[in-house]
Specification:
Length: about 260
């Protein structure tokens, strides 16, 4: 007789990911603190400390295993040094019905509610989506990268699949492609493509980040957007990432984003 196991019901949007190496837990040994600044290895840090090049609160410390408290100021050759922050980069395929913020004053469900990740409270979204839009969102604690990707000068490409309530006419196709003028200015489109014979499903690429811009483009011409999904963001795609799931970015993806221009 063979035995069978029943699978426990799981929340399909509930997922665990192993967190990266944590930031320093204080108190911490001085040689480890120095090494965590990225200046040198832990072994080299021992040599620097023994050579009298390191101080804690302006007092020279030659013991590598002296303990550093969180509020202590450590200097190397008279210059303040601090440990590097562990940066986290997650790519989420957001389902509809979630708010793209880390907290909501109306207590509605947010994207953080479906992420089981140690330290998730430090993350913030880059490239927000409204509640009824699904697709890719980047979550990180890297403020410099977030600022870079959000700045209009970098023209980050975002691609959406749009399902309309009626066929898109040739006239409106051309009008959108040429750039409509909305209440807050011109809405240039990088690329527009009809995806099916019914002309009710289209792909649109934009580089601007104004509020609800894709929906407003079609609504201005009398269309209702029945479904909106972002499937491409700054070189990142949904390939292999089911709805409601997330994954850490690969090293090559992080490098790509940091060199994005």
């Amino acid at each position: 007789m063979t035995k069978s196991r029943k699978r426990k019901d799981r929340n399909p949007f509930h997922q665990k990911v192993k967190p990266p190496s944590p930031d320093l837990d204080y108190p911490v040994r001085l040689n480890k603190y120095v090494a965590k600044t990225g200046i040198c290895s832990r072994r080299k840090a021992v040599d620097l400390i023994k050579a009298g090049q390191v101080s804690i609160n302006d007092r020279t410390e030659i013991q590598p295993y002296a303990m550093v408290e969180k509020d202590d100021q450590v200097k190397l050759d008279g210059k303040v040094i601090v440990p590097e922050t562990t940066h986290i980069y997650l790519l989420l395929n957001k389902p509809t019905g979630l708010i793209s913020t880390t907290a909501d004053e109306l207590s509605r469900k947010t994207i953080l509610d479906i992420i089981d990740f140690e330290g998730k409270e430090r993350l913030f979204p880059v490239g927000r989506l409204d509640r009824n839009t699904s697709g890719l969102i980047l979550l990180t604690n890297d403020g410099d990268l977030a600022k870079k990707l959000s700045h209009p000068s970098h023209k980050v490409n975002k691609r959406y699949q749009v399902t309309l309530d009626k066929p898109l006419s040739d006239h409106h196709f051309d009008a959108i492609g040429n750039g409509l003028t909305l209440e807050d200015g011109l809405a240039p489109v990088k690329e527009l493509e009809i995806l099916d014979p019914s002309r009710m499903t289209v792909s649109i690429s934009i580089v601007m980040g104004r509020n609800r811009i894709v929906r407003r483009i079609f609504e201005s011409l009398g269309y209702e957007v029945k479904r909106l999904d972002r499937h491409y963001y700054a070189g990142l795609t949904k390939k292999g990432l089911p709805r409601g799931k997330f994954r850490p970015l690969t090293s090559s993806e992080i490098i790509m984003l940091k060199h994005f221009s």
